[in-house]
Specification:
Layout (H helix, E strand, L loop, with lengths): L11 H26 L6 E6 L5 E7 L2 H9 L7 H8 L2 E6 L3 H15 L14 E5 L7 E5 L7 E3 L5 H15 L6 H5 L6 H4 L13 H15 L3 H17 L3 H20 L10 E9 L2 E10 L2 E8 L27 H24 L7 E4 L5 H11 L4 E3 L4 H39 L5 H5 L44 E9 L2 E11 L2 E2 L5 E4 L8 H13 L1 H4 L7 E4 L3 H14 L6 E5 L10 E4 L13 H30 L12 H11 L2 H6 L2 H5 L6 H10 L2
Helix pairs in contact: 1-2, 4-12, 5-10, 8-9, 9-10, 13-18, 15-17
């Protein structure tokens, strides 16, 4: 008697699919190994890509074949490097002539591609400078941006405060003007700065051109680190005036000398030898790193600025003698091994900062570093800067004091960051527990990742505006296994308008335990009854979460709505129509008397309202995100309202459209909207508007 054959398992299709995926991965791996085997033993740069075409990592190598082979011929286990290698489906390599060229190309690619496993430093804004214009009576001003050869720039400075303090010093000692050119040209009497002896009054000819130029020259010599020479020159001029019995002018110069001497004595860290020096110290702790940069310009210590890179945890590994990435040990000797790993990581972080900060920018003639770095890196910096760079690793005397101050600053800044992040992580955890959120981060690891850029469905109407803030750039990388809550994504919406005018919706994003300003979005609301907040919310949600809006990316884990039952009901209708889960919608309803701390949470899926304790960490996080959405919405609304009422600077920014032509245009078409909707022919029919200017206006207002 033969036994009946076993029925085919129900999960056979899933098993077949898994087998197909393994086979496809094996084919990809064989192809990658073949490409590695064909690589030359030459300097170059390599790039790794995942299945979506996103860049995973950019690296350089003296020997491409040896370096790239280390990733594919070694078992990295469950480390983050192993996680990265498992996602590689394609690689590209570029052969260069030298290691220095490889370094330059690597840095350019890192800045352009923003790879998710490289150590990245944010580059949200440039450093400020002190600018002295080239005019008959030069103006001194604060400046941030690209420098040119037309004017003279001094710096960079670590922060705006250092520039403004220096400007105040220059005003007090050298009496250099700071007023705008339009004010300078139209003054009929000296301003208050002249009265309080902060300006020499060149606007009304109270100082000759030659005397003013001499003052500017002295100020520039001081900025270049020659205070003693400036003092000698001032003393010589004072004695010359005294010999000619010009005692009033001699007294003025005496006061300048006194002010300058006071400043020099107050400057506790100064030197007569080192003029322009950058001091850099790095510290790594708790999976985070801090590079502290202190600046010495003209012999004056101007302060420091801390930088916090991302993706440092991916580099808590040390290269062995063959240059291959070694694994981080958990046990063994413990202390000595851990110290060596941290030290190697600190060197790697410092080298990444030097490359990303200085390549393509100005490099001082001396760098004082807390760790020794690769000579090839310094050589490359010197080549691109056209000067020899001196590097000091073990300074003495005054330089030692500078480095000790910078190291201490790095330690304090990193400790403060870890403390703040720990508090923020506690808030995230409290919110997840309070709302009993069911988070499936495993699915996200499988490839359902957030579109880091968000969406702005109508580019012409909705500005994808990165909001300047203290936070670091948004990270699209997978959350670290040790901190799964880092992947929690919250989006919050708010509506803002003034009596129905200039209605805008804001969407802010919270992820990685912090706000992500680069992913904020504003939506201009159209075709609704003015003041209808419900319709405005509906339009914003539809544009955000429709297929075109999300670009097939996953929806957030939580959607906060600034409003009560009505706004939540509107959100529920939108989500039902789009087939999205209702459980992620939470309304933040103001409590009795609209008092802070009495807010109630309203749910779209029928759960009863939830009122958290005013001291609850979860409520603090909700309030933080809600307040940020409100701030972002109201600033956008005010800007739009100003643009609607006055045309903003749209007409004023068009070359050739002065006050008279602007007035004629506004009178003819009844406002900026009318001008924007007019054709080229209609614009050209206005008196004083040529065909060419009409075409320029038409393009500018579209």
């Amino acid at each position: 008697m033969s036994l009946p054959s076993d029925p085919e398992p129900k999960d056979a299709p899933a098993q077949d699919e898994g087998a197909n995926q393994e086979q496809a991965r094996a084919q990809v791996w064989d192809r990658l190994l073949a490409e590695v085997a064909s690589l030359p033993a030459l300097p170059g740069v390599y790039r790794y890509f995942d299945a979506r075409g996103d860049v995973l990592y950019v690296g350089k190598a003296r020997d491409l074949k040896k370096r790239v082979s280390s990733y594919f011929h070694k078992n990295h286990g469950g480390s983050r490097i192993g996680h990265m290698v498992s996602r590689i489906v394609r690689m590209e390599t570029t052969v260069v002539r030298s290691e220095a060229e490889a370094l330059l190309l690597e840095n350019n690619l890192i800045k352009t591609l923003n790879p998710r496993y490289n150590i990245l430093f944010r580059d949200d804004k440039s450093y400020p400078y002190l600018k002295i214009s080239t005019q008959a009576f030069p103006r001194m001003s604060y400046y941030r941006g690209a420098v040119d050869r037309k004017h003279r720039y001094y710096g960079p400075y670590p922060n705006a405060w250092a520039v403004k303090e220096t400007i105040q010093l220059m005003q007090k000692v050298f009496l250099i003007r700071t007023c705008e050119d339009a004010v300078f040209k139209n003054r009929s009497r000296p301003c208050l700065l002249y009265q309080i002896k902060r300006c020499s009054g060149p606007c009304v000819d109270l100082i000759s051109k030659d005397e003013y130029a001499a003052s500017v020259g002295q100020a520039e010599r001081f900025l270049l680190g020659e205070p003693e020479a400036v003092l000698e020159d001032l003393q010589g001029r004072m004695m010359a005036h005294a010999d000619r019995l010009e005692y009033e002018k001699a007294a003025e110069i005496r006061n300048q000398i006194k002010s300058l001497s006071t400043v020099l004595h107050q400057q506790s860290v100064e030197t007569v030898m080192d003029k322009d020096v950058d001091v850099l110290a790095v510290k790594v702790n708790g999976g985070r790193a801090c590079v502290n940069l202190a600046m010495v310009r003209g012999g004056r210590h101007l302060g420091d600025r801390a930088h916090f890179p991302v993706h440092v945890q991916d580099h808590l590994q040390v290269p062995d003698e063959a240059g291959e990435p070694g694994e981080v040990g958990e046990g063994g000797e413990g202390g000595a091994e851990a110290d060596s790993i941290v030290s190697a990581t600190e060197v790697r972080v410092l080298e990444a900062f030097l490359a990303q900060h200085y390549i393509g920018g100005a490099v001082p003639s001396m760098l004082i570093l807390s760790h020794p770095v690769a000579p090839a890196l310094i050589e490359a910096l010197g080549e691109q800067g056209g000067r020899k760079i001196t590097v000091v690793h073990q300074p003495r005397e005054q330089r030692r004091a500078w480095l000790d101050m910078t190291i201490k600053g790095a330690e304090l800044s990193l400790a403060r960051l870890l403390s703040e992040e720990g508090s923020q992580q506690a808030r995230t955890r409290a919110l997840v527990e309070a709302l009993n959120l069911d988070l499936d981060f495993d699915a996200r690891e499988a490839g359902l990742e957030v579109d880091a850029e968000g969406s702005a469905p109508d580019a012409s109407a909705d500005a994808a505006i990165p909001e300047p803030a203290q936070a670091e750039p948004a990270q699209a990388s997978a959350p670290a296994p040790r901190d799964p809550l880092a992947g929690l994504r919250i989006e919050c919406f708010d509506i803002s308008h003034t009596a129905g005018e200039a209605t805008q919706a804001s969407c802010v994003v919270y992820e990685q335990h912090k706000m992500q300003p680069s992913q904020y979005r504003r939506y201009n609301i159209h075709d609704i009854t003015p003041g209808d907040d419900y319709a405005a919310m509906k339009q914003a949600l539809e544009r955000r979460y429709s297929a075109a809006g999300t670009k097939a990316a996953r929806v957030p884990d939580l959607v906060l709505i600034d409003g009560g039952k009505g706004q939540v009901a509107m959100a529920r209708d939108v989500f039902q129509a789009l087939g999205l889960p209702l459980s992620i919608i939470v309304g933040v309803e103001k409590g009795e008397g609209r008092k802070v701390g009495l807010e109630e949470l309203v749910f779209a899926d029928g759960r009863p309202k939830l009122q958290l304790a005013p001291s609850s960490a979860a409520l603090m996080l909700v309030a933080q995100i809600r307040d940020e959405a409100h701030r972002f919405a109201i600033t956008g609304m005010r800007a739009k309202r100003a643009s609607v009422r006055t045309g903003g600077s749209r007409l004023e920014d068009i070359a050739g459209v002065g006050p008279k032509r602007r007035a004629r245009l506004l009178q003819r078409f009844g406002g900026v909207r009318g001008v924007a909707s007019a054709s080229v022919e209609e614009l050209a029919s206005v008196e004083g508007i040529s065909r060419e200017l009409a075409e320029e206006i038409y393009r500018a207002l579209r």
